Amino acid sequence: EGRPEVAATLRALNGALGRSAAVWIKESGARNLRHRDFLAPRAALGAIFPDGQVCGGGTAGVASLGGPGVLAVRGCQETPAGLVVQVRRPEAFRRLLGFPSGPAPASGAQQRWVVLHCPALRYPAPLRPRHLRPLLLADHLAQLLRAQGVSVCLVPALAKEGSQKLLQQLRIDWPASSGGLALPDIVVALKQALGTSPYATGCEEGPGKVALPEDVICKVHLKNFVEQQCLVGYDPNLDVLLVTEEKLRSLAELQQAVLQCTVSYPMALPASCFPDIGSCCSIVHVVSCEEEFQQQQLDLLWRILDPRAHTALQKHLICGPVKVTNPSSPIGADQYFQLRRHQMYDASVMKYGELAQDEAWTEVIDTLTVAAIRFEMLSTAHRSQITLDLEDSSISTKGTKSGAFVMYNCARLATLFGTYQQAVEQGTYPPLPPASELKYSCLREEGEWLLLFNYLLPFPEVLQQAAELPAPTKGIRITASTETVCKFLIQLSMDFSSYYNRVHVLGEPFPHLFDQMFARLQLLEAVKDMFHSALATLHLPPLSQI
């Protein structure tokens, strides 16, 4: 029967009505979930059935629904709102809690590679908060893709020691060395391609010629290339690009990453520096809006010098601006990190007193700081502006939408299971029986179904959707749901916190209460594992205490 899935159940529901189009919706609000799990709205039914009335055969087909990944239906009935379905909840608990809560296993399809390119790391001066956004986004996206079985190569390699230290503090896992094929060899090949390109002109000096900087190799007419190739989505102000050694080195790093998609750590220059690797490798430039123009220049230069399939597969994922309110002076990314860390320390001391000043709390405060910054940067859609109020620490240290709140609730689960394990060792409670022996009919509390139906059920699909990199509908820009995991964790934390504050999980040690306690512990263990899997995509370790 397999692990139930939202998508599989919706497909089966639509099929039972004889329709492939989407008719049904999954409910998520606590009020509606009291009496229905799926709804075919009256308006949608009216569009496909005369008078909006479903024939008896349709409702019977829904009621007898089954198949791999499909939730079993308890009942189906007509209501003023439309056709409503309730699933067999104890069976849903049994089927879901017997499966791991992590991402769905990768399919056996052809291996895919994605090159994630973050030009912010080439910024010559110390990084600023606006550079952190694409870096954190690329790091998170890399984790999501790897969880789906996609191989990821991160470009460019770290070079500056200051940046290395900051990225380590932020738990950004970025390579410090490109390794493999020597970059100078690729640069030579790029120069050779430049010398034969019809879009490149030399920098000859002569009457009427304007002297160019010494580091300029030649000029490339990007506008002519765009017009002749009928390319769309590029800035209309792109015209002539002055090609420098630095720009060619940037392209060489990208070319090297593409080569590593086909050859693991190549140690020698192949016969051609420009193999055609087709559609198995995609290049995604994760760029701030301030750097978008420069990246489009490099995109076109690469297309001109290497007119193969992979350069035509370049995608641009643009991050909106990061606005810092009332800065006394331009603030660096390292200053931003230290400021948030001081705020997190002060908030911890205020809440926990001298305990938070203990050395053992250093790691806790560091992790809370990283969580605060990651949620501050990633819980907003990547196209939208982010505003950082450096004087207001509440967004980072308080409230239900902060990373600290998510980490706190994850720690509450660790404390719960630590307390239970200690009680088992002391003989107060028996060990948790196997999942197949538990009585899930004991799980009747509203919050328990909410945790299963809104979080455990769709979680693998949430991770899969967050890792999707759709092709541009027009032009070169793409939109990704990079805020999905943060928003999922925030809402999960709110619903878990509400349930945990209302329900006493570890009750009195009376045998007649054990069935319900065991079922609740099994549910919350799955929730804990889900927290850990989601936090791993943000490079955040779970905390055992706060």
Automatic annotation (TrEMBL):
UniProt-listed GO biological process terms: arginyl-tRNA aminoacylation; tRNA C3-cytosine methylation
Residues covered by the DALR anticodon binding domain: 406-546
Gene3D superfamilies xref list: Isoleucyl-tRNA Synthetase, Domain 1
Highest taxon in the source lineage: Eukaryota
UniProt GO molecular function: arginine-tRNA ligase activity; ATP binding; tRNA binding
A Pfam family reported for this protein in Swiss-Prot or TrEMBL: DALR_1
Protein known as: DALD3 protein
Lineage: Eukaryota, Metazoa, Chordata, Craniata, Vertebrata
